[in-house]
C-alpha cells in the first residue's frame, strides 16, 4: 500500500508539472463556464443566507456549511431573511431553471451565489463549489475562491454506477462510502445486483431459506474459503435513506429467470427438474432457470417483489433477464404445456409471456421493469427500460431497441464495464476481458452518432462493476476510479464540451481529492509520459 501511495505522489507531480494550475478543473465539465480575474475571500464574520423561498433545502445548506468548515476551518452560520453586508453565501430558489438537476453558481466581489429550482440542483451546485476550493499543489489560500459564472444542467437524466454484491458481499459502510464518492461527481443512480448464481443478498421474510441457504457458498474460484453475507430489510431501508440524502436513488436487481442457483439451492422445486442444487463457486452462466411453466414460480416472484417494493421506493426494479439459456425449458413438460396453453410459438415467446406476467405484478406496486437487453426476447413490456451491454453488434442492437419503442440506458461493455482490466495483467489469469483504459472510457459515445432527435430514446449511461474478480469494496473503488470520472463527464456534459486533452489536465486535482477522501484508485501511469 505504501508503494502504491508513493507511486501516486510521483505521478501527481508529473501531472502537476504539465498542468496549468490556475485552470478551473471541474468534473464533469459544466454546460457554461466563464472565469474572470479576481477571488472572493471567505471569513468568519460572514453568513450563509438561505432565501425564504427555499427553506426546504436546509439539509443541503447544512452540507454546504460542513463543506466550508472542512475545507477552511471556518464555522459560518446559516441565516434566513434578507441579504446584509455580512452575507458571504447567497442561496435562492429560481423556478425558471427548468431542469431539476440544473443550477447557477456565480462568485463575485459580493460573494457566492447559488440558485436552483430543486434541492437536487442545489446539491449539484455544492458539489461543483467543492471542486473550486484549492488543493495543496495549487499553493493558494483555502479561503479564496475564483470569480466564476456557471450555468449547468445534465446531458442525460440517468447517470448510474453498478455494484455486484451477489458475487462478493459488500458491507454497508463500504457502499455508503461508494455513494459519497459517486454523488460528488453527480451520478444519481446506484444499481445493486443483489442476486445471482453465487449468492442471494437481500432478506425476504416469506422465504427465509433464501438467506439461510442462498447467501452462502462453499468457496470462490477454488480458494476453499466459505463466503456468505446478506442485508436485512432494515439495513437496506437505512441505506436507501442515506443515498437519498446524497441525491442517489438505489435500483435493486432481482435477476430472473436465469442466474438463480441461489434460489434453487434454497427452493429446488422451483426448477423444471428438481434436484439438490448448490451455489456456483466459479464465474460462468448456469443453464438452470426457474421453471416458468410452474405457477408456484410466479407466486414466488410476486411475493419477493412485494417485499422488495417496500424497501426501495425507486419506481424501477431491475429484473435481470440476461444470459438465460432455454435448454431446460425445451425439455420441460411444464414449460411445453404452458406454451400450448397460452398459444405461444416457442420458448422465446414464453420468455416474453413471463415478463408480461411479472410486469403486471410490478404495475400493482407502481413499479416499472428495467432489464438487460437480449435480442432473443421476443417482446418486452411497453413500459420497459433496457440496458445495452453486449459488446457484439451494439449499433444493430441499439436500432432494435429504438424500433421496439423502448427506453435505453447505455452500458456498452467496451466503454463502461469497469470490471474489465485497466491494463494488461490487471486481472491475473483472466484473458477473455478486453482492456478498458481511461481513454477508452472517455471515448464513450452513448448515442453512437445519432442526432439529438434520433437519440431521444436513450435516457442515460451506466458503468458496471461486476463482482467475479472484485472481492471487496477497496477493489471496487480501484476498478471504478478514475474511469468513473470519464463516465461522469460523458453522462453529464454537453458533447461539444468534451475534450480528452482538457480532461487529462483536470485529473491532478481530482486525484488529490480522492486521496484526501480515502478513495482507492488506479493512477493512470500511461498518461504521465
TrEMBL record:
Organism expressing this protein natively: Agaribacillus aureus
Annotated ranges, domain Beta-hexosaminidase bacterial type N-terminal: 24-152
Catalytic activity: Hydrolysis of terminal non-reducing N-acetyl-D-hexosamine residues in N-acetyl-beta-D-hexosaminides
EC numbers for this chain: 3.2.1.52
Occurrences of domain Glycoside hydrolase family 20 catalytic (ranges): 156-494
Keyword Signal among record annotations: yes
Name of this protein: beta-N-acetylhexosaminidase
Key words, A-Z: Glycosidase, Hydrolase, Signal
Gene3D superfamilies per record: Chitobiase/beta-hexosaminidase domain 2-like, Glycosidases
Signal peptide positions (record): 1-19
Domain of life assignment: Bacteria
Family label: Belongs to the glycosyl hydrolase 20 family.
Top EC class, one word: hydrolase
Amino acid at each position: 500500500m505504501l508503494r502504491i501511495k508513493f507511486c501516486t505522489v510521483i505521478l501527481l507531480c508529473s501531472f502537476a508539472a504539465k498542468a496549468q494550475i490556475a485552470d478551473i478543473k471541474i468534473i464533469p465539465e459544466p454546460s457554461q463556464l466563464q472565469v474572470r480575474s479576481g477571488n472572493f475571500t471567505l471569513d468568519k464574520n460572514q453568513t450563509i443566507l438561505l432565501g425564504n423561498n427555499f427553506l426546504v433545502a436546509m439539509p443541503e445548506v447544512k452540507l454546504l456549511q460542513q463543506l466550508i468548515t472542512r475545507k477552511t476551518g471556518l464555522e459560518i452560520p446559516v441565516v434566513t431573511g434578507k441579504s446584509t453586508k455580512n452575507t458571504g453565501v447567497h442561496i435562492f430558489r429560481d423556478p425558471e431553471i427548468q431542469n431539476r438537476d440544473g443550477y447557477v453558481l456565480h462568485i463575485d466581489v459580493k460573494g457566492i451565489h447559488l440558485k436552483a429550482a430543486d434541492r437536487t440542483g442545489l446539491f449539484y451546485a455544492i458539489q461543483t463549489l467543492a471542486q473550486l476550493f484549492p488543493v495543496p499543489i495549487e499553493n493558494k489560500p483555502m479561503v479564496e475562491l475564483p470569480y466564476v459564472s456557471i450555468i449547468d444542467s445534465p446531458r442525460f437524466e440517468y447517470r448510474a454506477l453498478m455494484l455486484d454484491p451477489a458475487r462478493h458481499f459488500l458491507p454497508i459502510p463500504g457502499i455508503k462510502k461508494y455513494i459519497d464518492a459517486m454523488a460528488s461527481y453527480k451520478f444519481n443512480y446506484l444499481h445493486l445486483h443483489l442476486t445471482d448464481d453465487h449468492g442471494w443478498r437481500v432478506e425476504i421474510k416469506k422465504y427465509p431459506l433464501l438467506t439461510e441457504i442462498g447467501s452462502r457458498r462453499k468457496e470462490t474460484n477454488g480458494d476453499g474459503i466459505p463466503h456468505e453475507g446478506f442485508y436485512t430489510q432494515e439495513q437496506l431501508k437505512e441505506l436507501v435513506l442515506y443515498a437519498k440524502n446524497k441525491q442517489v436513488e438505489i435500483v435493486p436487481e432481482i435477476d430472473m429467470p436465469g442466474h438463480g442457483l441461489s434460489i434453487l439451492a434454497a427452493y429446488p422445486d422451483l426448477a423444471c427438474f428438481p434436484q439438490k442444487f448448490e451455489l456456483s463457486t466459479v464465474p460462468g452462466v448456469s443453464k438452470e432457470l426457474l421453471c416458468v411453466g410452474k405457477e408456484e414460480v410466479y407466486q414466488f416472484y410476486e411475493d419477493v417483489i412485494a417485499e422488495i417494493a417496500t424497501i426501495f421506493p425507486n419506481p424501477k426494479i431491475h429484473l435481470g433477464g440476461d444470459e438465460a439459456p432455454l435448454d431446460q425449458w425445451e425439455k420441460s413438460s411444464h414449460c411445453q404445456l404452458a406454451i400450448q396453453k397460452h398459444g405461444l410459438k416457442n420458448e422465446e415467446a414464453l420468455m416474453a409471456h413471463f415478463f408480461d406476467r411479472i410486469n403486471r405484478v410490478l404495475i400493482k406496486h407502481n413499479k416499472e421493469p428495467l432489464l438487460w437487453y437480449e435480442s432473443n426476447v421476443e417482446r418486452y413490456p411497453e413500459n420497459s427500460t433496457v440496458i445495452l451491454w453486449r459488446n457484439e453488434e451494439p449499433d444493430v442492437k441499439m436500432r432494435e431497441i429504438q424500433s421496439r419503442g423502448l427506453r435505453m440506458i447505455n452500458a456498452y461493455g467496451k466503454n463502461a464495464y469497469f470490471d474489465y482490466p485497466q491494463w494488461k495483467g490487471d486481472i491475473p489469469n483472466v484473458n477473455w476481458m478486453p482492456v478498458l483504459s481511461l481513454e477508452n472510457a472517455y471515448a464513450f459515445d452513448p448515442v453512437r452518432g445519432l442526432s439529438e432527435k434520433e437519440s431521444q430514446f436513450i435516457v442515460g449511461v451506466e458503468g458496471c462493476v461486476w463482482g467475479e474478480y472484485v472481492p471487496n469494496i477497496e477493489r471496487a473503488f480501484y476498478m471504478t476510479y478514475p474511469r468513473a470520472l470519464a463516465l461522469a463527464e460523458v453522462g453529464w456534459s454537453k458533447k461539444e464540451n468534451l475534450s480528452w486533452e482538457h480532461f487529462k489536465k483536470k485529473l491532478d486535482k481530482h486525484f488529490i481529492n480522492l486521496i484526501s477522501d480515502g478513495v482507492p484508485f488506479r493512477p493512470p501511469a500511461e498518461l504521465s509520459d
